[in-house]
Amino acid sequence: MMRNRDQAADYLLANRRKQNVVDNIPEKLFTQSASEAYRIQDCLVDLLAAEYHSQACGYKLACTNQPVMALLGVDEPFSGRLMEHSTHESGRVLEASDFVHRIVEPEFILVMGQDVPPVATGHTAETILPYIRSVAPGIEIVDHRYSDFTAVGANALIADNAIHGACIMGNACDSWHTTDLSTHPVSLDVNGQECSRGDGGNVLGSPLIALSWLANHLQTRGRALKAGEIITTGTACDVFYARAKDRIRADFGTLGSVSLAFN
After folding, report:
1. Going by fewer Cβ within 10 Å, which terminus of the chain is more open, N or C?
2. Domain assignment present for 223
3. How far apart are CA 172 and CA 194, in angstroms?
4. Is residue 44 in a domain?
5. Number of domains present in the structure of the chain
6. Which domain does 258 fall in, by range?
7. Is the distance from CB of 103 to CB of 241 less than 8 angstroms?
8. Beta strand 164-169 with 87-89: parallel, antiparallel or unpaired?
9. Is 53 left (phi over 0), alpha (psi -120 to 50) or beta?
10. What is the pLDDT of residues 102-147, one digit of tens each?
11. CATH, residue 93
């Protein structure tokens, strides 16, 4: 099985390098189970770290938004790893040709201030709160190499590092504790025109609920959130499929804004 994991990860890395678009991971390389998908993801993350002389710096959450859950036919989120080489400061200009798809998602980013200990009964939005240092406006670029990503099943997406492409992070806000993230508004502008509006309630009811889900999920895998890690919590607005020359800005009101552009 370990050999298949390595082969599956090699296959996924090759698709990223060559931007191959495929129907799915070949059945001979992939057992359709979430636990196996996460093991393949671990192997792929190790390969990406070696490829880009990088390392993991946090987590991305996917499917915390109900319409996205419905689109993929899942009833809970899943996660991937953020990488240093693909995590950028606001204002970054990215090459459109580096991505097969440029799916733009405005997301609350939570920055951990302390390691999160395991809790037998599981974390909640309330118990996870003291471990968060700051909140930042963020944009995730979701990218995939499947002919129809809605048809491959969640486990194929998990294996491919939850189809994470890049993360753009604005300035972190330390004075956020009086902000109700569940109702905090977010808007997405493209080329100076607002194209989507939402709030933190679209993220499993609150980004804090999403973070507690991740802490509990990691606990089942013998892992834990660590101080300094950053977590993108899932899209708060409708997503946007960007093209070359698009200028993107997500406004998080009192929490600031974040921008990027595609060449």
Report:
1. N
2. yes
3. 23
4. no
5. 1
6. 55-262
7. yes
8. parallel
9. left
10. 999 999 999 999 999 999 999 999 999 999 999 999 999 999 999 9
11. 3.90.850.10
